[in-house]
Write a structure and sequence with these properties.
single chain; 305 residues; alpha/beta; Indigoidine synthase fold; 11-stranded mixed beta sheet; 11 strands; binds pseudouridine-5'-monophosphate; binds manganese (II) ion
């Protein structure tokens, strides 16, 4: 698959000089946020990563190539083109062979990051087991990818549109450590709390880097979830979000929304119902994740020295 990779100069330079790199996904741009907030977010997170001593690599698929790093006009394309496909593991062969434009999900980005030798990835929230997943079998491929790709995913937990309990059970079964960065509770994306605990609380980027380094050395296949709660000042109240989520889930069901359309549909509806507040929170938590991911990527290089 490596023959499909294409690097920007900045990322290639970072690779050759053993500099810390942080991967970023494109689904969050193309399907997770509206324009123009999506392009602003995409540029801001890259800047945050540079300001914190690492090199950003936003990943996406174009013209039959997996791009490791996107230039400004390519980012703009992902932010505005309505025909961008959402790409998870199953979609790589079709999107690459047809030359279509594809935004990588958490799973898709992990695959591409691992191929490119990038060990840290910042996003918003991971996919998971959907509520009533025991009936619909809607389980995000993000979870199976976490079980097999050696990449640490820095996220604000998972949205409570998902069944967080079953999502964590799945991760446990597949040997994926869920680390809380300066927190004991698994955060629920818009809120800092949930009914669930993380596996381990770790308070510094250095200690997280050591756990990662040890995991890779042991050759225990698979990634880690680094759960980083949304900063207090941007958090939304858990119970309020819960009632909104119940309403949008019902709406999705009534409209017969299934498959990969579910997550983007729910995100857009939640934004409507919170008068845009959920979008502000989403942007704030991604920014925070980018910062922490950069610190971990820097620490990982130091740990290895
Ligand atoms: N969570 C968000 N915003 C997003 C996503 C998740 O807050 O845009 C995206 C991510 O790319 C994630 C994907 O990998 O949704 C999960 O989709 P699915 O449930 O179809 O696997
Ligand atoms: Mn799904």
């Amino acid at each position: 698959m490596k023959e499909y990779l294409s690097f920007t100069e900045e990322v290639q330079h970072a690779r050759e000089n053993n500099l810390p790199i942080v991967a970023l996904e494109t689904t969050i741009i193309s399907h997770g946020m509206p324009y123009p907030q999506n392009i602003e977010m995409a540029k801001t997170v890259e800047k945050i990563i540079r300001d914190n001593g690492a090199v950003p690599a936003t990943l996406g698929i174009m013209n039959g190539q997996i791009k490791i790093g996107l230039n400004d006009s390519e980012l703009e394309e992902f932010a505005t083109n309505q025909s961008v496909e959402k790409v998870s593991r199953r979609d790589f062969p079709y999107i690459l062979s047809t030359g279509k434009i594809g935004a990588t999900t958490v799973a898709g980005t992990m695959i591409a990051a691992e191929l490119a030798g990038i060990e840290v990835f910042a996003t918003g929230g991971i996919g998971g087991v959907h509520r009533e997943g025991e009936i619909t079998w809607d389980v995000s491929a993000d979870l199976t990818e976490l079980a097999q790709s050696n990449v640490a995913v820095v996220c604000a937990g998972a949205k409570s549109i998902l069944d967080l309990g079953r999502t964590l059970e799945y991760l446990e079964t597949h040997g994926v450590p869920v680390v809380g960065y300066q927190c004991d509770t698994f955060p629920s994306f818009y809120s800092r709390e949930s009914d669930f605990s993380v596996d381990y609380r770790i308070d510094t980027a250095q200690e997280i880097a050591k756990v990662m380094d040890t995991k890779w050395k042991l050759e225990l296949k698979g990634g880690l979830v680094i759960a980083n709660p949304v900063p207090e000042e941007h958090a939304l109240p858990f119970t309020e979000m819960e009632s909104i989520i119940l309403k949008v889930l019902k709406e999705a069901q009534e409209n017969g929304i299934t498959g990969k359309k579910v997550t983007p549909f729910l995100l857009a509806k939640i934004k409507e119902m919170t008068q845009g507040k959920s979008l502000e929170t989403n942007i704030a938590l991604v920014n925070h994740n980018a910062k922490v991911a950069a610190q971990i990527a820097v620490a990982l290089k130091q740990v290895r020295k």
